Each structure stands twice: as structure tokens, then as C-alpha cells.
């Protein structure tokens, strides 16, 4: 395994995720029970789950699951899809397949830590930061300036974690064109796609825009089903998919058979689940806006363009790290401070924290948060 630093988010979560009374920084939407998911299944899929043989599955993924995934794109078919045990395995193996020691990658920040630490363990990497002073805008000229003759990958994530930023479709299409023009693979983390506040701002998927581009997705985030542990990469470069399959032989080999059938059911009911999840976020947003309005002298709040996380600014004198530590220790309210999203590649704001807006009934956690704030202002 490539030598990697501690994963700051997971290390923090290992201490607090299941012990804090109020998990207010969840990166996924409210999940559902197995019974609720099976209620969305057709008779054939429900029977397939109940009579499932628990043997090995295909390395590329269940053929019917790949067919269902392909139908969520415009220009791909099942042969352009390979499944993984969640998005993390997919990201890790993709970077190891795409990058070698003499290569160069461009990574947009802030991001999910593995998006930069895995490439950095393999080759030289340049970061391009979203601009917090311009609504987290992505400057395409800075991306162009970062590209070198040996650049092999440009890695992006929209809707962005942790900021919730969605760039314009025109800029995303131009980014894909720019990568194609230079023979670069655009690696697009699209795990929050489908949770845009304005559906008209939903970006095209990278794999539809370019034969070289890779679209990463998973059942965990927009669908709120992380327990299935099913992710995938879609790419029309079949030779690259073959290399990914060979790499997977050294990790999981194949996915969980129950997880693949359940993912198939979820994706067939995708629109129903996304409508439910967007409605949940829409219901929650006024609750969060009212909370942050009460403490407007301490926080700068901005609702995300998409996804189910936001990245407010903390204005208190002690700084966001001490604030988050005291809050979880004294009130049991878990947030993720800016250090979790610290980049080794670019300056990143040190006064932000991630809060999740996609879980059901956030009022209890926000009440505990508000009570603590009133007592410690």
C-alpha cells in the first residue's frame, strides 16, 4: 500500500462520530431501513434479494447493476461502468492506475482529503483553490496555468465537499474540453449529484462529456445509503477500465452480493429517493437559517448550492478549532473544524467548519448548540 498520512476526518470521527450526542456534521442524507428500501423494489428484485446466493460476484460488478448505473448517464453503457466497495476504493485505485512517479496532477481544494493525499503519494501535485471571497468560484485560468506537459489528471468535486459549491455548466464543460485538448483525464467526484437546490444547476456528468473523463459516484451521499458500500467509476475508455479491474484484484476483488442487489433497487428508485432527500434538505434549510440568524455576530452562514453539507465561517476570538472542541466536549454537538480540510497544496480558510443539513429532525441538535452558545457568548 502506498504510504499515506493519517486520514484526519476518519481519525476525528473515530473519536466522536458514535459518542457525540448530536452528530451535526454528517456528510450523507438521512438513510432508510432495509425494509423501507425493499418496499421500493419490484417483485423481481425483491425475490432476487431474498433468494440471493452468497457467493463471489463479478469484479466489474453485477451486470444488472451496471446496466442500471449506465441508464443514469446519457452516453455510456454497462461496459463503461466498474463497481467498487464505496467511493474511497474507487478514488484510491483510479489514482494509482492513472499516475506514476514522473507524472503531475492538478487537484481543486478544499476537498475530501484522499483527493489530494493519494495523488501526492504518487507524483507531483498542484492545487487550485476555490475562492471563498467569490462564493467559492473556480478560476479556469488558474487551472490552465497549473497544467504542465506531464499533467495526467485534473481532479474536481462538484457539488463540493465541504463548501456545497456548484460551478456553472458552461465552466464544467469548458474544463472537460480543456482536459481533452491536452490529453488529460478529468476525474470528477460526483457523489453529491442530484442534491442541487436548483435542479436546473445540475452539472452534466464528466463521462458524458469526454471519452477520457472518469465520473465517480456512490450510493452513500445523495441516496443516503452508505451502509451498502457500493460505488462506481464510469468511463468510456475501456482500456482504462481494464486496468482498474486488474487493480481491484489486489483490494476487494469483488463487491458484497447483497449490497449490489440493494444498490440496484435503490438506483431503480433513484428519482423517488432523490425527491425525498431534496425535500428533506429544503425543509431543514429554514431551521438552519434561523439558528445562524440568531448568532449572526458569531457566524457567517451561506446555504450550499448543492449537496447536504455547508461550510460556515466562525468569527469568535478563540478560533474555530477550540470552538469545535469545546462544543463537542461540553454540549455533545459534533462539527468538523477547518483543520480537517487543511490542504498541503493551497492556503485554505482556517475559520470554517462543516455542518450537515441532510439528516432528519435537526432541531434537537441545534437546540443543544443554541443553548451552549447562549451560555458561552
Automatic annotation (TrEMBL):
Keywords, comma-separated and alphabetical: Aminotransferase, Transferase
Keyword Transferase (UniProt): yes
Database matches in SUPFAM superfamilies: PLP-dependent transferases
Presence of the UniProt keyword Transferase in the record: yes
GO molecular function: pyridoxal phosphate binding; transaminase activity
Pfam family, one: Aminotran_1_2
InterPro entries with a match to the protein in the record: Aminotransferase_I/II_large, PyrdxlP-dep_Trfase, PyrdxlP-dep_Trfase_major, PyrdxlP-dep_Trfase_small
Highest taxon in the source lineage: Bacteria
Positions of the Aminotransferase class I/classII large domain: 54-357
Name the record gives this protein: Pyridoxal phosphate-dependent aminotransferase
The organism of origin for this protein: Streptomyces sioyaensis
Lineage of producing organism: Bacteria, Bacillati, Actinomycetota, Actinomycetes, Kitasatosporales
